[in-house]
Amino acid sequence: MIEVTTSALGAHAFLRGTAPGHLDALVEAATDVMFPARHRIFAEGGHAASFWLVRGGHVELDLHVPGEGPAVFDTVGIGGLLGLSWLFPPYRWAFGAVCASPVEAFELDAAVVRRRCADDPALGHDLTTRLARVLTMRLQRTRTRLITTSLVALAE
Question: Which of 44, 48, 100, 134 could form a Cys-Cys staple with 86, CB 3.0–4.6 A?
Answer without folding.
Answer: 48
